[in-house]
Design brief:
Shape: globular
Structural class: alpha/beta
Bound molecules: iron/sulfur cluster
Radius of gyration: 21 Å
Strand order of the largest sheet: 1-2-3-4-5-6-8-7
Mean pLDDT: 95
Distance between the termini: 38 Å
Largest sheet: 8 strands, mixed
Order of helices and strands: EHEHEHEHHEHEHHEEHEEHEHEHHEEHH
Number of helices: 15
């Protein structure tokens, strides 16, 4: 569910969101109507991700309404994972308690950094203290499945600065950590600053060192990497680490439905996405139409490429049996030569069931995926 509102736009962000909250009631009404329109299928859902934007700008009754409406129109497993993305600048303890009462059982907190100057550069609305208080309140209100988002690769950031962010994150005993590399998206205020030369973009080597540091530090401090940017804390009781059940779906190429302005859906072999602006989205719903802006039908070849790219993002790698079932192709036979070369360079590991990048290979994900996807398989 895409909640398209933010308190203020961050200069690096190119997600669709509005800072005018006046349309929240009509948005919530439209979202409920959209659920009614697309629901009622036999499909069973086991995750609900309320993202954005900044969904925590919504009052708890707004989030409760989204969750209740989802239960009304969709077939939902009893152990549903319900994640709410939270911005520490929008949170206080009672609000978190009410989100929990509404059914939210996983929080993804956008901390981004534990350094004031980094938060200032990123244009975040919250302080370090507010981020720390938000995590503490989440614990006090009973959340036992918390993920933190951090960003690295800021201009001027060095290894010491990034390592101290990672250390502070570990001190919170978070169950899950995502470390995202800052990207310069065209059309954002950040990209204009970089183009004008007022901001010096970090060199590849520096960012590469921070990327390697993330994997090395977290995997030696009790975390399991399961995707290029995602890590889950190992448990002491032998239970499975708290992976994001929801995000794993994107990487394993299973269908999902996205609702709300600019939300994307994937129902094999179609990908489609909703109108980006709240106005257009609401207008379509009010007229009784699904608010779909565009659809594309993936060709078999495109599906193969996506399955390879997404599989290589994960540490488990491409599921070779699933790949053969889905496409009738033996991955090892088709790519034998390339696999041998990449294995020699210690960029790839092959087992009987999976083909995965090594930590070294992860740094070259795009290039390696292009090697596979560039091959003619017809
Ligand atoms: S709070 Fe999140 S969605 Fe909103 S502008 Fe900042 S990065 Fe983008």
């Amino acid at each position: 569910m895409h909640v398209p509102y933010c308190v203020r736009k961050c200069p690096y962000c190119d997600f669709y969101s509005s800072v005018d909250l006046a349309s929240v009631p009509v948005f919530l009404e439209s979202l409920a109507r959209e659920m009614e329109m697309v629901g009622g299928t036999d499909q069973v859902f086991d995750t609900l991700y309320v993202g954005g934007g900044t969904p925590s700008v919504l009052e708890p009754d707004g989030i409760a309404r989204i969750i209740e409406t989802a239960h009304k129109h969709f077939t939902i497993r009893t152990d549903l994972e319900i994640t709410l993305e939270v911005n520490p600048g929008t949170i206080f303890r009672e609000k978190l308690a009410e989100y929990r009462q509404a059914g939210v059982n996983r929080l993804n907190i956008g901390v981004q950094s534990f350094h004031h100057e980094n938060l200032k550069f990123l244009g975040r609305i919250h302080s370090v203290e507010e981020a720390v208080a938000c995590i503490a309140s989440a614990r006090q209100t009973g959340f036992d499945n918390i993920g933190l988002d951090l960003i690295y690769g800021l201009p001027g950031q060095d290894k010491k600065n990034w390592l101290s962010d990672l250390r502070r994150a570990l001190e919170t005993e978070t169950e899950h950590l995502s470390g995202y590399m800052l990207t310069c998206e065209s059309g954002t205020p950040l990209s204009r600053e970089v183009k004008s030369g007022r901001i010096q973009w970090p060199e590849g080597g520096v960012v590469r060192e921070l990327f390697d540091t993330t994997i090395e530090f977290l995997t030696t401090h009790g975390f399991l990497q399961y995707e290029i940017s995602n890590f889950a804390r190992k448990t002491d009781d032998g239970l499975e680490p708290r992976y994001s059940r929801h995000n794993q779906k994107y990487w394993s190429f299973v269908p999902y439905i996205g609702l709300g302005p600019s939300a994307h859906s994937f129902i094999t072999p179609q990908r489609y996405w909703n109108h980006r602006s709240i106005e257009n989205y609401v207008r379509h719903i009010k007229a009784g139409h699904l608010p779909i802006a565009e659809k594309e039908e993936l060709t078999r070849e495109q599906m193969i490429m996506e399955a390879i790219f997404l599989g290589l993002r994960t540490t488990r790698g491409i599921d070779l049996i699933g790949f053969e079932k889905m496409f009738g192709l033996n991955f090892i036979k088709i790519y034998k030569g390339k696999i041998v070369d990449l294995e020699k360079d210690r960029l790839l590991n092959l087992t009987n069931t999976h083909c995965a990048l090594t930590p070294k290979g992860m740094a070259y994900l795009d290039g390696i995926a292009a090697i596979f996807t560039g091959q003619d398989i017809s």
